[in-house]
Design brief:
141 residues, mainly alpha, 79% helix, 0% strand, elongated
Length: 141
């Protein structure tokens, strides 16, 4: 038997509503996860492997947001913090790569993004880490 037009419309509406709810939950949960772990990533209380874990979770959960240039610029600070964590673990090559990504993302839109990265690096007492940052800045220009 054929379904009536009214039954087909009800079925379509149910599917559309379910898809909308799932899409909303995906966006909301990934945004909340990215935001909460970004706060932990930026916290100086954590160092090394723990800091790196928080940064990686934030970057992974919010990966879909990088399609928006402003969001990519905002995420640059998390990429910088990831580089700091990598440097703390003695992984300088990976740290330089993270710093390069942070600088590229900060420069993707106009705004205070690059200045924020430089201010964060000035706050650090680790001269070796700052030297890595300066080398990235010099090679980018």
């Amino acid at each position: 038997m054929e379904k009536s037009t009214e039954a087909q419309n009800t079925s379509f509406k149910s599917w559309a509503k379910a898809i909308f709810i799932w899409a909303f939950l995906f966006v909301w949960l990934s945004g909340m996860t990215a935001g909460l772990t970004a706060g932990a990533c930026r916290n100086d209380r954590y160092e090394g492997a723990k800091k790196l874990r928080f940064c990686n979770i934030s970057l992974t959960a919010g990966a879909w947001m990088k399609m928006f240039p402003v969001e990519r610029s905002k995420r640059a600070i998390i990429q910088l913090e990831r580089g700091i964590a990598l440097s703390q673990l003695g992984r300088e090559e990976n740290a330089v790569e993270a710093f390069e990504i942070a600088l590229r993302d900060a420069r993707s839109t106009s705004g205070p993004w690059e200045q924020n990265l430089s201010q964060r690096m000035v706050q650090l007492e680790d001269g070796k880490m700052r030297a890595l940052w300066v080398s990235v800045l010099e090679s980018a220009d």
